[in-house]
Amino acid sequence: MTIRRISIFGATGSIGQNTVDLVRRTPERFKVVALTGGRNVAQLARDARELGADLAVTAHEERLPALREALAGSGVEAAAGPPALLEAADRVADWVMSAIVGAAGLAPGIRALEQGGTLALANKESLVTAGPLLMAVAAEHGATVLPVDSEHSAVFQALVGEDIASVERVIITASGGPFRDWPFGRMAEATLEQALNHPNWAMGQRITIDSASLFNKAMEVIETKEFFGLAPSQIEVLVHPESLIHAIVGFRDGGLMAHLGPADMRHAIGYALNWPERRHLPVERLDLAKIGKLRFEAPDEKRFPALRLAREVMQAGGLAGAVFNAAKERALDGFIAGQIGFTDMARVVEEVLARMSGETGLIDAAITLDNVAQTDHVARIRATEAIETLKTRA
Ligand code: NDP
Q1: Residue 12 alpha carbon to ligand 1 centre in Å
Q2: d(CA 199, CA 176)
């Protein structure tokens, strides 16, 4: 049996913990090189000890003493701060899980790809902000990128043995979130607690709110374009409240290949972890006779403008994805902090996109890590300005 050297970035989060759960079940198959986390150093240290990691890194320098203390006597090396995250990515591993949340996941992911191994990509922001760069680095270094988002894993699985040229369209599904049936006026008043009440999936806080606004789906549409190299017109979104079909691939002969599975991220994570093999995974087996019915609806882009904005971003290309993501992240912070209402998030993103598209040379600059970081920075300032304007109007 070959032992796989693995690292988990964002190990303390929802995806990270599901990955740890799978690794823990067959520890003899893996050598854990590095685990990284953010504020939750207690969890990071517990997992690093249990899995016998070489290195544990917290993103926050001020947490280093706490991490060191929690790891005392374990033999696990401790480090902190963004440069230490990059150094962790330099440690040779066969398989790296990219599950840091937000734009902060991009640089460590690129760095890991430069080692030429396999990157299991949960961090969708990487593809949205810098898809062409990420895929080019992977190609240059002979690295493999595997999707972990359930929809993209579903498409990837439906494409095994198929020629991408025979694909007519890809349909990614959306549960519709907790506000699927709510009129716009009621959505405008939605609270944080209501936005966090996802009908099917248990996920981190930020992606759960993005699911309620369909910004998550908008990100996934862009992710689909970048990962599979499809034209925007080939990508469709379908509301499917049961969240059992994750994606459908439509071929040029009219056939549709759907991927079904329980709403449990350990399926997509496990598929990537075991790829190219399929192994037993501890997920529920669906009883379709008991489920009885699956429902499908067209998304309502008036109530959920994020989907329209995603198409505009794909049309614009270049750094528009970096603007979109940063404005969305800042607007999300504003909603979480109670500065703006739920439906204001899309207004903020739309305004920032419009403003920055008008600023010569910004969106059209080359997609490099520096340009993405600079664009991200400016977009957050513009989003903060848009939030302030909305607050004074309220
Ligand atoms: P969580 O918020 O649950 O976890 C995020 C992880 O990133 C934690 O380990 C956190 O550390 C760490 N982190 C937070 N900020 C930073 C930072 N600035 N630098 C380095 N590390 C940081 O997120 P999820 O697990 O839900 O999501 C992770 C990624 O996967 C996201 O990109 C998301 O869109 C994507 N994804 C998630 C799915 C899900 O089901 N959850 C499904 C598909 C994709 P700590 O908690 O210790 O502070």
Answers
A1: 8
A2: 9
> How many whole angstroms from its chain centre is CA 286?
25
Each residue's pLDDT tens digit, 220-232: 999 999 999 999 9
Tokens 């008036």 -> residue: 302
Nearest CA to ligand 1 atom 43: 149
How do residues 71-119 score in pLDDT, each as one tens digit? 999 999 999 999 999 999 999 999 999 999 999 999 999 999 999 999 9
Please provide the DSSP assignment of 74-139 as one string: S--EEEESHHHHHHHHHS--SEEEE---SGGGHHHHHHHHTTTSEEEE--HHHHHHHHHHHHHHHH
Which tens digit of pLDDT belongs to each residue from 21-68? 999 999 999 999 999 999 999 999 999 999 999 999 999 999 999 999
54 CA distance to ligand 1 middle (Å): 22
Query: Considering its fold, how many domains does the chain have in total?
Result: 3
Residue at 133: amino acid letter: L
* pTM for the whole structure: 0.97
Q: Do 177 and 140 share a domain, yes or no?
A: no
Would the CB of 199 count as within 6 Å of ligand 1?
no
Kindly state whether residues 179 and 293 are assigned to the same domain: yes
Q: Tokens standing for 342?
A: 């739920």
